[in-house]
Amino acid sequence: MLRITEQSALRVQNTxxxxxxxxxxxxxxxxxxxxxxxxEIQYSVLSSNLIKHRVEIYKLWYDVYCxxxxxxxxxxxxxxxxxxxxxxxxxxxxxxxxxxxIIGTLRLNIPEQGAISYYDDFYELNRFDKSIVGIGTxxxxxxxxRGNNISHALMRYAVDxxxxxxxxxxxxxxxxxxxxxxxxxxxxxxxxxxxxTNYGRVKVMKYEIL
Length: 210
Known about the structure:
With 210 residues, this protein is an alpha+beta fold. It has helices at 6-24, 55-68, 119-122, 150-164, 179-185; strands spanning 42-46, 76-77, 82-83, 92-98, 101-109, 133-141, 169-174, 188-189, 194-196, 200-208.
């Protein structure tokens, strides 16, 4: 099983930082108007491809976690105002877009492909056949676009995608204050509350993909 040490994780981060800095100069993201109910929202899967396609996502993650939630995340790049971690860029990300603007994400990583960092132990994935499990992180919607069921649509798209590649379970954690949302989405808690270094107390949830 592949294990990522802190030193190797930092090397990955430094490599991504260098690539991001190179691409920030050339990347131009067009602004989109504030979302209305009748605007067309498009959903798709972003594969681990060119890093420049992920820069706007890293900016959204920074805006939500660092600016809105005031999280002091040690992997945040406060100069470029982007956030990524050792799971990047080796992930698939379900994205919601309005025009050229990414307004929501749900990141998926597949344990059998390695490089899932501390989630292996934190989610106690030894309880599963890892060939049928996907883990979800970075599940969020831009503040200006909340209230339009985008979070529900992101999750449905993620579940459909995992089903299409033969996965049976989606594991994700959430803070107790949004437990009701995950309950409505069909998740149930399968581990006792845990303390996450960056996010405080969380519930580890499981969704069975039928």
